[in-house]
Amino acid sequence: MAGRGSRGQEICDRSRAFALRIVHMYQEIGKHDVGRILGQQLLRSGTSIGANVEEAQAAHSDKDFLFKMTIALKEARETRYWLLLLKDSAIFPAAKFDEILDEVEQLIRIIYTITRNTKQNMQ
């Protein structure tokens, strides 16, 4: 199945590292009222990416793998939304979000490619 093996481990490691960055970001932005409220949404979606990628590695079929990776993709897109909202709100310095936004964009592209290739291989 696509995305498993060493490449699967790479996306697992990368999405887990991203989740840790989200946790650290939440610890900082959660000190403020709006940051805490928006940050809780960010924390949920940002950590869910890696959880779903990890679950996909143990999928019992290509269809199950695709389902879990599709959820990971949706969570990555939601995470991008919360990051952009926090950045655009100007509550925190915008530069604080640039690097992590770049990383979520890369994760979206990688996970999208995995899901697209899996769909093609299933046909």
SSE diagram, text form:
Layout: H1 5-29, H2 33-57, H3 62-88, H4 95-122
Outline the structure in words.
With 123 residues, the chain is mainly α. The chain has a single domain (5-122), classed as 23S rRNA-intervening sequence (de novo design (two linked rop proteins), Up-down Bundle). The chain has four helices and no strands. It has helices at residues 5-29, 33-57, 62-88, 95-122. α1 runs antiparallel to α2 and α3 (62-88) runs antiparallel to α4. The longest helix has 28 residues, at 95-122. The protein is elongated and about 45 Å long.
Comma- or semicolon-separated keywords:
4 helices; de novo design (two linked rop proteins); mainly alpha; elongated; 0% strand
What is the CA-based Rg, rounded? Answer: 15 Å
Estimate the global geometry from the Cα principal axes.
Answer: elongated
Based on secondary structure, the structural category is mainly alpha
Q: Indicate how many domains the architecture comprises.
A: 1
Helix content: over 70%
Mean pLDDT: 92
What's the N-to-C terminus distance? 13 Å
The CATH class designation is: Mainly Alpha
Reported by name, the CATH topology is: de novo design (two linked rop proteins)
Quaternary structure annotation? single chain
> Element order, helices and strands?
HHHH
> What is the CATH architecture assignment?
Up-down Bundle
In the predicted model, the low-confidence regions spanning at least 5 consecutive residues are: none
In short:
85% of the residues lie in helices and 0% in strands.
